[in-house]
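#struct-queue
[09:14] JT: dropping the first one here, sequence first, then the structure tokens:
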Amino acid sequence: MANFFQTIFIKNSKLNVNQLIVKKTVISFFFFFVLAGAAIGGWKWLRHQPATADGASKPIRNVLNTNEAIFKGLLSNTHLTKEYPVSAAVKKARVNGDIGMKTPFDPAKWQMYVVKKNGDTLKLRLEDIKKLPKTEVIFNFKCIEGWSQITRWGGVKFSDFIKAYGLHDEMGMKYVGLSTPDKEYYVGIDMPSAMHPQTLLCYELNGEPLPVNQGYPLRLIIPVKYGIKSLKRIGTMIFDDQRPPDFWAKKGYDYFSGL
């Protein structure tokens, strides 16, 4: 090996500067085209792989499932998202999408429908939520679009809500499904993430009622996941042992979406 590098050094030492530049340029282009060809070939191969039921190619879904298994293993009630002082929160929180928010909506008629395991339905108003102990969480809200903001949210712990309304059988199920009143946006949340101590049924932003474009009167805030799971304007809540439909997972995104 030493003799090999010595030979290369001797050969290069006999070249002038321009010759060295030309030689290195040729080598660089060679490796560029080799890697570009490999990338294009890999992309073509990926596109021709069979798709899963949600439309994602099987290799991509396998990678996402592996990520989910890793993040699920890290999740626990003692594994908390970092929180910040009030002074660190932005004054105006960015809106991460408006799907499910475009249908005409009368706040005075809003109710949250909670479908129980036995088929009964609770119909709750905002005052039914606000009478429970209030909690705030100030954390770095992260969007799959690549941006993040430190934001301040107030509401009721999901776990406190479950216990206050006697949803003990429902708590034993594997998933929670949430949808907007118009059913245009919907998410599925694994129960351990829903019951995490930082997960809120949220009705305040920066100490004030939620703005309409942030999900007034009630939304989910779940710091242990990307913002796509923090559904705005909750209309219906269900519980299931099978994965409820999830808007972005149907388009090939990670169902768990954990951080």
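[09:21] JT: and here's the second one, same format:
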Amino acid sequence: MTNPGVSKSLAEEERAEVFEALVVEVHDHGRVTLRSAHAPTGVAMEARVAVHGYSPSCGDRVLCTAGARGSYVTGVLMAPSPELRTGDACVRVEDGELVIRGADGTVILRYDAESRVTRVCSEHTVIEGTERLELKAKEVSVDAERLVQRVRALVTEAESVATSTDRWELRANRISERARNVFRDVQALLQTRAGTVRSIAREGMSLFADRTTIRSKKDTAVDGERVLLG
């Protein structure tokens, strides 16, 4: 025997009407106000959103299914400003850019497809690579008030390195320099303070100055096959 209640319910579903509609107002709890797309000035009706992940906006063109039990948005035909939500963040298109915003509305990421520029805007950004992290670009710029590097080994390979600063401070237990030629141009004072200073030249050593002073608290020794003065 057929249940009359079930038969009535099935008959109501068969009489459900499907039509295109425009979203004219968005309410809480997944409800929207719609008007027929073919008669935008006609009678408005309320419907519940039944599309997973869709956040309606005014002006969206949707597919509405209306039956005796209520009206539901069952499809999205065109969304000028689509929005998807995941957790507390939402993703949507704003002025041709893909934008990710946080729960308070602040911009987290902005991507411009035309210029192919991605901007990450966050108070605290962390990029982690468990094994390897690579940055590849023709030019990389870092603009910060303070840059901190903590590494076990730092290797720099470049054809040319230029450093410009008001003050340079280097602290190390040992410094080794190897170069074919070294040129230093100091305008004011060049001072070396050390426990012991030793200079070794394989061929010759020249010292040119307008005035030279050598002062020793104890002994001063000059040793050579020939010593020429004057």
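[09:30] RK: nice, looked through the second one.
[09:31] RK: The chain has a mean pLDDT of 84.
[09:31] JT: good to know. The first helix runs from residue 4 to 14.
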